[in-house]
Amino acid sequence: MRFSVNALATIALELQSGIGHQDRFQRLITTLRQVLGCDASALLRYEARQFIPLAIDGLAQDVLGRRFTLEGHPRLEAIARAGDVVRFPADSDLPDPYDGLIPGHENFHVHACVGLPLFAGQNLIGALTLDGMSPDQFDAFSDEALRLIAALAAGALNNALLIEKLESQNLMPRAPGAFEPQPGSQMIGLSPGMTQLKKEIDIVAASDLNVLIDGETGTGKELVAKALHEGSPRAVNSLVYLNCAALPESVAESELFGHVKGAFTGAISNRSGKFEMADNGTLFLDEIGELSLALQAKLLRVLQYGDIQRVGDDRSIRVDVRVLAATNRDLREEVLAGRFRADLFHRLSVFPLSVPPLRERGDDVILLAGYFCEQSRLRLGLSRVVLNPAARAALLAYPWPGNVRELEHAIYRAVVLARAAVAGDDVVLTPEHFSFADQPPASAAAVTAAPGTAAVKPLREATEDFQRSQIAAALAAHQQNWAASARALGMDVANLHRLAKRLGMKA
Fold first, then answer.
1. Which tens digit of pLDDT belongs to each residue from 287-340?
2. Would you tell me how many other CB atoms lie within 10 Å of the CB of residue 325?
3. For the purposes of burial, counting CB atoms within 10 Å of the CB of 162, is it exposed (0-12), middle (13-18) or buried (19 or more)?
4. Which pLDDT tens digit goes with each residue over 352-404?
5. What is the spatial distance between Cα 358 and Cα 403, in angstroms, rounded to a whole number?
6. Mapping DSSP to helix (H, G, I), strand (E, B) and coil, where does residue 354 land?
7. What digits encode the pLDDT tens for the residues 150-182?
8. Which one of 56, 248, 339, 347 has the fewest beta carbons within 10 angstroms of its own beta carbon?
């Protein structure tokens, strides 16, 4: 069967109209699903031996957060290698990456599957996948007709990638022969806050400005630092990491600036510090607010003059280092309280970036959950890991005080629990697999106001009551030990202190 001229014209128009690539691609696959009678369709970008979903229709929302590696998905590997239309037989023994991910068909396997690899010249840049629940769903469409669709989609995707590359180059002009940006870190999210953060990263990455990254513990500040480094000319050199909160005061100066033999007891040889290791590269100072005032003064000198002194050495060493700093504290308040130097704060915060907490990112929770489901599937060697609709609703309703890190741990724990309860390697996550879903959303304080009428608290107030009760119970069970209580609650101890303060449980 050939496509009608009207059908092809409609597809071409969908690819040409609209101002954003995301909107354009979404309309493309929605149109394809209608024209071909698919149950599901997806447009994927190919990068670093994995397919990254750009737009989906008829698939669960968490698919947008998944990353499909060739090694973990033999059907997608077959599409990548084929160079032409791929039709998988209904009885193919290759697992389908979308099994359980078509809403309303979670317990059924996909029967009809067509893959269209997308090329720019000889280079694979993406794929279109078309899926249906009926084995003969695409038999009426010829390979020639499907190749036309692939050609249109490949042209649109290639143009989008070229425009994206030009835009990133125009944000900060580079010298001839300069570096090419590396593939971006896994910063998953389509919420307004994350979209704005990605734009700001693109703007400042190629510069040499110091950047201060602030955000709650577990929001992904390390990924922001990695993206800044990978998008800079320094990407060809090292990104050196140092957690200032984990530094004992006695060795902090040596860790930063190095030492010479005999500088102190135990200094049996010369040793380079993090600044020397990061020369011509980037130094990421995590939890910068934990540095002592004395070390802050020495760090300020390096930022001002570009030289360091090893502990026990009178000589200066020139270094060329870009400093990225991160904190979960409000450094402005720390400056006012005299715990952080104002001059260092202004040196570091030339271009501040703020990472939004997960509770403010809306549906990004589901995208991230999909990503962690896929990572768990690969790590544990499972055939599939999917979330049922009730589990997605539970994830969206939870406030995630531990942010993305808490979500990652929750998904992995849920997968381990679900796997233990089934005989095979097919895992479907339900609310019962998540510990936070075992509790009612409100505390026992919700009482009857009048006969037959229940007093309903505002959701935020009820949630805070429940959080107070859980924190109090954890502290009572662990003899008021905050670190042990935080572990029992599945969250970072710094976040627990912050949450307890916000809830009025700490002075």
1. 999 999 999 999 999 999 999 888 888 888 999 999 999 999 999 999 999 999
2. 28
3. exposed
4. 999 999 999 999 999 999 999 999 999 999 999 999 999 999 999 999 999 99
5. 5
6. strand
7. 998 898 888 888 877 766 555 544 444 344 444
8. 248
Distance CA 302, CA 347 (A): 11
Measured CA to CA, the distance from residue 220 to residue 216 in angstroms comes to 9
**Three-state DSSP class for residue 308:** strand
Which is it for the CA torsion 441, 447, 451, 456, positive or negative? Answer: negative
Q: Which residue has the tokens 């009926």?
A: 134
Q: How far apart are CA 345 and CA 330, in angstroms?
A: 11
CB-based burial of residue 411 (10 Å sphere; 0-12 exposed, 13-18 middle, 19+ buried)? buried
pLDDT top residue among 61 and 1: 61
Residue type, 304: Q
Q: At 496, which amino acid appears?
A: L
- Which residue shows structure tokens 């979330």? 387
Main-chain phi, psi angles of 352, to 5 degrees: -80, 145
Burial zone of 115 (CB within 10 Å; 0-12 exposed, 13-18 middle, 19+ buried): buried
pLDDT for position 295: 92
- Radius of gyration in angstroms for the set of CA atoms belonging to the chain, rounded to a whole number: 27
pLDDT greater than 60 at residue 443: no
Task: Please answer whether residues 369 and 65 qualify as being in contact, where contact means their C-beta atoms are separated by less than 8 angstroms.
Answer: yes
Whole-model pTM?
0.79
Q: Which two tokens stand for residue 273?
A: 């510090």
Torsion angle in degrees (nearest 10) through CA of 132, 137, 141, 144: 40
Query: Which residue did the predictor score with more confidence, 277 or 483?
Result: 277
Report whether 480 contacts 473 (CB < 8 A): no
C-alpha span between 189 and 363 (Å, rounded):
8
Count the Cβ atoms, other than its own, within 10 Å of residue 243: 14
DSSP count for the chain of H helices, then E strands: 17, 17
Nearby residues of 227 by Cβ (< 8 Å), 6 or more positions away: 184, 185, 187, 201, 205
Q: What CA–CA distance (Å, rounded) separates 410 from 415?
A: 9
**Residue 310 near residue 262 (C-beta atoms within 8 A):** no
